[in-house]
Every structure is written in C-alpha cells, then in structure tokens.
Write a structure and sequence with these properties.
It contains 7 helices and 7 strands; from the N terminus they run αβαβαβαβααβαββ. The protein is α/β, with parallel strands linked by helices. The protein has a single domain, classed as Rhodanese-like domain (Oxidized Rhodanese, domain 1). The strands form 2 sheets. The chain has a 5-stranded parallel sheet with strand order 1-5-4-2-3. A two-stranded antiparallel sheet has the order 6-7. It comes from Clavelina lepadiformis.
Length: about 190
C-alpha cells in the first residue's frame, strides 16, 4: 500500500461542490491539498510553517476549530465583517513579514469545504494593494481547495487547537455537508 497521506479520489458530491465553489469564487486562487501538503510537510520537518513563509488561516466558526485544525493554522472569526477580517489578516501578514514587506509570503485559508475561505481569499486578493500597500505586492493568497474536509478525507494530519495533540476528527459543519466526510471522522464540539 502507498503513503498513508496519498490523495484519495473525491466522490461525486465533493467534485460537484468544488466545481461550484471555483465557479462562484473565480477570483480566489486555489491551491490543491497535495501542493499544500508538500509545503506543510517540509515546514513541519523544520517545526514551523513560517519557515516556508506561509501563513495558514482557519476561517471556520470557533466550535469547528475546537474539534481540529491543520497544524500551524491561525483561527480568524468567520463571523466578522470583511473589514474586520482584512484588519486581522493585515496584522497577521505584517507579523509574519519583515519591515520592508512580505517577500513571497503565501497566505492559505481553509474552512470546511472552501466556500467561506474562497469568499475571504477572493475579497482579499481584490483588495490586496489597498489593504497592504506596495511593499506587500508579492503576497499571494490561496484557498485550500476542498479545505479541511478534503484534507481529512485524504488522511492528512490534524491536531487539536493546542497544535500538538493529534486527532482524526473534523467538525461536520452540519448534517448535510458532513456527508462529504469519510465515515467515522465526524465530531461536534
């Protein structure tokens, strides 16, 4: 058998949802779970995503985040206004950057399936220059396509919010969307 973290072919429901999200949020650049996992595993071999110049944002409700997250993710409140989230993301980018700008900083956001994170990334991408200014023009925004559902379905590692305790559970968001998760990994907070 292959690597336990190899990609699993998503079911029809997942593929249809992802196609709909891509169409609805066409201004939001997408990053595959495979591409992000390559960056993530390199960074985690060095103990930090910052080593790869990546800022990972969890854009779910707090109760979803409390069940699990991708290691290194920073929670931002999905219920806030765009302006509030732009301020938070702007501050996080500046914290993860040097004083002259964010040399090739990659901001990756995820939610349950990608709707909320694609919406945020699309808005941030459009307002990047207004929000960050010319010193940050190399910042690249991406949505993690399929978000934590696809990540978990592919058996990729998850942790509790403490960033050290492993888990295999994911909050299903609701009973309908939870059907896109593999059997046995649903858990509500």
């Amino acid at each position: 058998m292959g690597d336990q973290h190899e990609a699993i072919n998503p079911g029809l429901g997942m593929r249809v949802c992802l196609a709909g999200i891509r169409k609805r949020f066409s201004t939001a650049p997408q990053m595959s779970t495979e591409e992000f996992y390559s960056m993530w595993i390199k960074a985690n071999n060095r103990d930090t995503l910052e080593a790869e110049n990546v800022l990972l944002l969890d854009v779910r409700k707090r109760e979803e985040y409390e069940v699990s997250k991708i290691s290194g993710a920073v929670w931002i409140n999905a219920g806030c206004s765009l302006e509030e989230n732009m301020t938070v993301v702007n501050d996080l980018i500046k914290q993860n950057s040097n004083t002259t700008g964010a040399e090739n900083l990659i901001v990756v956001a995820y939610c349950s399936l990608g709707y909320r994170s694609s919406q945020l990334i699309g808005q941030l991408e459009v307002k990047k220059m207004q929000m960050l200014g010319p010193n940050f023009e190399t910042v690249k925004f991406h949505n993690l396509e399929g978000s934590i559902f696809k990540w978990a379905n592919e058996n990729k590692p998850l942790v509790l919010p403490d960033n050290t305790t492993s888990t295999s559970f994911v909050h299903p968001f609701n009973s309908l969307w939870g059907k896109l998760l593999r059997e046995g990994i649903h858990k509500r907070s």
